[in-house]
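notes to self, project folder thing:

trying the whole complex as one job this time. last attempt i did each chain seperately and stitching them together was a nightmare. two parts in total, labels are on each line so i dont mix them up again. if this works i'll redo the older ones the same way
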Amino acid sequence: MNDLFAIATGIMFALGVFQLLRRDMIKVSMGFYILFTGINFFLLAVGVFDGNQPAYVAPKDDGQAPVYLNDAGELTGRILDEDTGEVAQPSDPLVQALILTAIVISFGSYALLLGMINILSRRFSTIDSDKMDNLKA
Amino acid sequence: MENNVLVLGPIFLPFLGAIIALIFAQNNRLQRIIGLVASIAAWLTACAVLYQNWDLARSGQTAVQIYRLGNWTPPYGIVLVADMLSALFVVMCTTVLVGGFLYTLQCKDRCITYPVFLPAFGMMSAAISGAFYTGDIFTLFVFLELMVISSVVMVAIADKDLALEAAIKYLLISAMGSLFLLIGIGAVYASLGTLTMADIGQLLETGDRPLLARAAAVMLTATFLLKSAVFPFHFWQPDFHTTAPTPISAMLSSIVVKVGVYGVIRLVTLLYRAESGNIGNILIILGIIGIFFGGLAALRTYDAKRVLAYSTFGQVGFIMVGIGWNTPLAMMGALVYAVNHAFIKSALLMLSGVVASFNQYKSAKLKDLVGAGKQKIGIGLAYFLGGLALAGVPPLNGFISKLALVRGGVQAQAWISLGLIVGGGLITLLYMTRVYVLIFQQKPTEDTAPQKEYGDSYLAPALLIAICVLLGLFSAPLVELARLTVEQLGDPTQYIHSVLGV
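result (full assembly):
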């Protein structure tokens, strides 16, 4: 799975950078979004394969906290599965939180970008970025 | 260490002001007053935090204020850290932001009457303070993105048509920068398993140093250099800073670029201390190129605001060279330079905006401004003082910062780069003289004489210039503050221990 993620991230990066460098502003915005999705893939691959248990475990019936602590009271990050008696590692919830935040942010910037491209395309009657050259004074 | 609620102030209060301003979207006058009140409240809390730190540092204690969000213990939760460096930078920013909000109070630009402008301004000030205070590298990314998006919104709705193009350019480029920051964050998290800056610093200092974590240093440096528009990443900066509405361009050119400076300082003093030599060499070379490129471009350009934007490009180069030398005195010089430059540059940009606001088309092009300020003695005097301060003429504060930087260079024994930056500093005098003589000394023609009776008020830039003069005449407190800051930066265990609580 990790290799698949690596290849997918690489392809998305290549596609994203290629589209970002094109003259068509719509394709630029697409490349922008593909790049951000590639980054999200990368962030996901950072931590998603570490564990095999859900990170959040409900309290036990007697109201006790789940067994994140060993006998000495130290935080181990491991859960004792009481049915099988195996020690399982919870999956990393932090990467998912990071990706959610990154998705929200990239979505916001993408919407802003599309709005600005909309105004620009009306003003110049084109979406060719080479023809939007008022800044070249 | 106890939670200090005051640390929340500079982030939370402008945010609250922005939200309240959104509620009163119909009443623009009230929005402006709300923004000003919120920024003054933020400034007061920032000053209180700095004062507490200053008190602790002078009595030899650990001068770090922290606030754990949700009371989670670091490194598991997000933590806001106000050490001497963050507190100093936040006081600098909130002071300039009060000036910016004061300027919007009397600004005649049409874009300020749009309901979204003041909320976006408030968000931007919250994001800048947040980027300085956060002790978590992912929260830094979030605040940087908030800062970018809100400043893009404010520039995109500016009165000039050109602004939209500049805004789209900046959004694309800075989004690429944020992307590289995210890759760096992912790499650090993959190799070290933590996002708290104190924890990263400690692990990289004591543990083994995985290659992936060291590769992240490149990504982070590139991002911060892009945010502060250092040489190879500067091409968006003059357009973006020139076309912005006056209060915003004053903020962008003075304090938004300082976020990148702050990031670089954190990189070389906390996160990647072992790599600071390599990063420092790169910073010195890029900084010197920036000084000459920016200075020479400012000499030949055609717009009063663009001169100052290119000048920012050069001045950030001075700060980067100071950080690159990385001796205590040089770092102190860089800090003093960063603070002084923020006041000078925001005041000068606002003064250019005031002069341009009397022009019929609000054009800041130099050919439209020939002699436009000849009748305005007050503005001319303030611009004269600001220009001298930027060029580093005693007794103004620019001289203090240049002197501190040169002392750092002498301590670092870097004679070649020292000679180059002293030579590059002279270009500043040339371009400021050119602009001053053009605007305030020459005879106005019929086209360039002020056509409007009322323009923007010059209260805010006058106050900022007064700060510049005061910091020049009484420079001891700022220099002492910078000395204490550098002392703390030299000993990262203070920061690490007070955040992690060991």
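what i see at first glance: The beta strands of chain A are 79-80, 87-88.
need to look closer tmrw
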